[in-house]
Amino acid sequence: MAADIIEAIQPVFKQFASDNYAGICPDAWQAMERANCGFASSYGDDDWTGQACSCIREVFETDCQVFFVFNGTAANSLALAALCRSYHSVICHELAHVETDECGAPEFFSNGTKILHIPGSGGKLDLTAVEQAITRRSDIHYPKPRVLSLTQSTELGTVYTAREIGAAGELARRHGLRVQMDGARFANAVAALGVAPADITWKAGVEVLCLGGAKNGMAIGEAVVFFDRGLAHEFEFRCKQAGQLASKMRFISAPWIGMLRGGAWLKNAAHANRMARILADELEKIPGVLLMSPCQANAVFAEMPDDMTTALRAAGWHFYSFIGTGGARFMCSWQTTEQDVRMLVSAVQAAAAGPTEVPHGKNGHV
After folding, report:
1. Is the pLDDT of residue 97 over 60?
2. Is pLDDT of 2 > 70?
3. How confident is the model at residue 358 (pLDDT cuts 50, 70, 90)?
4. What is the pTM of this model?
5. CATH homologous superfamily for 2-16+264-364?
6. What is the three-state SS of the chain?
7. Is the pLDDT of residue 217 over 80?
8. Annotated domain spans of the chain
């Protein structure tokens, strides 16, 4: 049934630019329909929002505090602002979304908190470099490090293990830093690792998680999850001031019920991961294509000659040349089919073979 629904709503073009391009999955859509049954209290004071919060607490096996916002920029920026004062700094990977793709929103909402970016292979923080950034200065002229921000899964499609997160958490605690996690693709990491969500969050030292929904099959809506409830003090005022308090909150929160109770959030993520793995395995076989990082979640990063990427784009295939890597990023979603993957592989094979026509998608579209 789900496969029939997917096929029916599959777009006429083929794309691997982002999992944001995918539609709303059936579980999220049906939950929104159920919430649309009549009148309900506004601004989050409704049963749907209460149930969604309970679902998240059940998934993470702890009495966390939960807030729903429209998007990941708001989630990350408001969470970091809640942990910092204006003279503090946030340490993150040099490719982290909070550094490269938030248009200065974390700095804006925290009234000037500085972002300190650190290198690390595979999109993961080098903890030695992190400690150097924390300890290299302690004078009043330097923005005091206050938060360590991790991205799970990373911007290069790799996944932090529970041990790696635990090591980062221990380092942060030793130096008095808080730990925030950008979990826009957290579900993909859980599916890849096969662990309990608690094992790679609060049990490993993460205090605030920005839990992604839009990239996993929802229309809009991210959850800011405070495992340390004390850190959530007056966070509702931050949400209101930032324009993130939805009047009809149930349409942001209800999809979480549909996604979490039936396990769709992990099924969607596991499917996207599996499609990416097939794509990575096939691309590795093509002469001239080199995988740039391990495919551990739902992203594939490939280095290929300019004439190949030019040919693919000329044929209409959508993908990004990723910031700071110089490679092509191919992203899979809950809606990506194996047929989509095989069509892309055929197009790359044709581009690698020379200046012949690169296959288009069905009906002449990609």
Report:
1. yes
2. no
3. low
4. 0.91
5. Aspartate Aminotransferase, domain 1 (3.90.1150.10)
6. CHHHHHHHHCCCCCECCCHHHCCCCHHHHHHHHHHCCCCCCCCCCCHHHHHHHHHHHHHHCCCCEEEEECCHHHHHHHHHHHHCCCCEEEEEECCCHHHHCCCCHHHHHCCCCEEEEECCHHHCCCHHHHHHHHHCCCCCCCCEEEEEEEECCCCCCCCCCHHHHHHHHHHHHHCCCEEEEEECCHHHHHHHHCCCHHHHCHHHCCCEEEECCHHHCCCCCEEEEECCHHHHCCHHHHHHHCCCCCCCCHHHHHHHHHHHHCCHHHHHHHHHHHHHHHHHHHHHCCCCCEECCCCCCCEEEEECCHHHHHHHHHCCCECEECCCCCCEEEECCCCCCHHHHHHHHHHHHHHHHCCCCCCCCHHHCC
7. yes
8. 2-16+264-364, 26-261
